[in-house]
Amino acid sequence: MENRKPTMQNAQARADQIQAFDLELTELTSNSVIMLSEQQNQSIQSYHHDVINALKQQYNIDDTAASKQLSLGMKIASLVAALALASSMFFLFFQFWGLFSTGVQVFALVAFSILSFIVTALIAQKDFAGYYAKIAGLISFGCFVLNLNMLGQIYSITPSPNAFLVWSAFGFILAYMCKAKVLLVGAIICFASFISMYFGTWSGMYFISFGEKPENILFASLLVFCLPFILNAIPSPTFTKQIAEFSHFDKVYRVMGMILFFLPVLVLSNWGQGSHLSIDTKIIEQCYQVLGFVSAGLAIWLGVKKQWRHVNVTGNIFFILFLYTKFFDWWWDWLPKYLFFFVMGVVSILLLVLFKRLRSDHHAQQGVKG
Amino acid sequence: MKAYLGLGLLLIIIVNVFIISGALYNRSAEPLYTLELSEREFNKAYSYAVDSENSGKTIELRRANYQPSNSFFGGVLSAEQLAGFGLSIDSLDQKRGETEYYSVKNISVFVAVEFAGDSYKRNLEEARLKTLEIEEKPDSFSEYELKSAKKNYDDLLNSSSRLYYIDAHQSEAHLAKKYSNNTNIFLLKGRLGLSYNKKKMAYIINYVDKNVEGMLLTNTQDKILPADTFEYDSSTKFRATMHVGKRYETWISDIKLVNQ
After folding, report:
1. Domain boundaries in chain B?
2. Do B4 and A166 lie within an 8 Å CB cutoff?
3. Residue of B219, B220, B243, B252 to mutate, testing the A interface (most A Cβ within 10 Å of its Cβ)
4. Residue, of B249 and B90, whose pLDDT is higher
5. What pTM was computed for the model?
6. CB burial string A51-75: b at 16+ within 10 A, e below
7. Nearest-CA distance from B93 to chain A in Å?
8. Could you state, in order of their start, the residue ranges of all structural domains in chain A?
9. Which site among B9, B10, B15, B18 would you substitute to test the A interface, given the most A Cβ atoms closer than 10 Å to its Cβ?
10. pLDDT value at position B69?
11. Least CB-CB distance to A173: which of B4, B55, B211?
């Protein structure tokens, strides 16, 4: 534990570990499994007290359950504040920009972008908890989006997918600088949009219409899912060390990659006409239904194998979505409603039994390994 | 932290320099086309989220309402026209026309726009003849039909747009060469939606549009126009000089009110 990189997430994990140890020690002592002397007890408590205090001072960690609940509230409040202030900036500009000459408009846009970014960097340097850095980061991101968007309007510039690449690059810089997942989500969406738009244009579409062919999004989704592997595979010790600091971002990449993959597959499994493939739409839909079930199953398997709870949960959600969409497709018109919902209920119970069985097997395997 | 700061600032500066220099390049030297348009050819571009609080005024080109008979809309596309969009009938899939009418794809093209040219004159003449026909045979037509025909003719004569999208092609050079002798035809970057019509067993165009949505008026240009210029019952008349630059991006250089 002492060898972990000193990050906010690691500090919180250390505090959680100490809390769990204290609780378990109390249990063990009350059941007379272990009896520590008064001196040993005091020594442990004093050590933990010092560690927690040091972590609190340095990283503003939560040392109680109540404090954790309040932190969650603060996270939500900071997200709302960030979105509201970014919107406020957007509307503020619209309110007054018509009063200025073109030169002043352009200067204001560039200056807002630069200033908000510098302020964000200064806040991120001081704010370990990241609440204020996230707010500043989102405002800065909003300013930069506004900057390019408004320059496009001022000079009547032909819209281009490249704007999404630039926004995503800026979003990634801000996300890593502020350690903010919400900015990472924004950056991933821009990045996936950019790749998908280019796939659309390569197939002869106008770039904004890329969503009309959901297959355009599939490559981007796989790329996003694999980004943590790609970043970790870069053979540079300095880079690997820096990336390790952001290991908690891996979850965001994987979940976003899965959402971006499963949503188009879900759409295509019900609407074959949206495919690039020139074969019968029924066959296309069936292929995507199979792909949906198989890939959701694979995701569940991968989640269990690698102990990636987020991958497991996302896989489960989409597996159930695929299953129920199929039920709806097959039986909604054909069965009386009471029977339809009865069948869904029975299938859900069967799934419950199946998962319970898998869980028992998993526990048994863990027991054998132990 | 310093690395992120440096990287972010570099990105902001490079991107802004790139965009602004591109815009200046578009407006540098002689524009490709210069046209004097009237209030008939412009709409106010609405942005619904911010419109009531937007102090900037953006206008966009307003195209004429099409009659299928005198546009390349609606008609069956020939193999040659499809080739102009980078497509061939063989590469397009006709089997999947499960519905009578479905969208095949949206593609990027260059659009030829005609101002007050043959398309407009043809449309005007058709409207005039229709009015005459109804006036000559009052028993065969209703009062409403006569009123509509007169209004249509009057609108075409006095208030509706004279901008017609007359052609589209993937190659700007092809269109520029084709219309090189027509000073009232200019090119814009645009897109068109292609559909398969099962009844006609053919491909048709279901929409054509320009890519750039609007042109922002400078604060000095904005001041020239009364606030109600683009209201439904506005009587403001003006002339605007519009240029099409090297990158087929448009801008307004001058606006003058017209004495009524």
Report:
1. 1-30, 31-117+162-257, 118-161
2. no
3. B219
4. B249
5. 0.83
6. bbeebeeebbbbbeeeebeebeeeb
7. 6
8. 1-63
9. B15
10. 54
11. B4
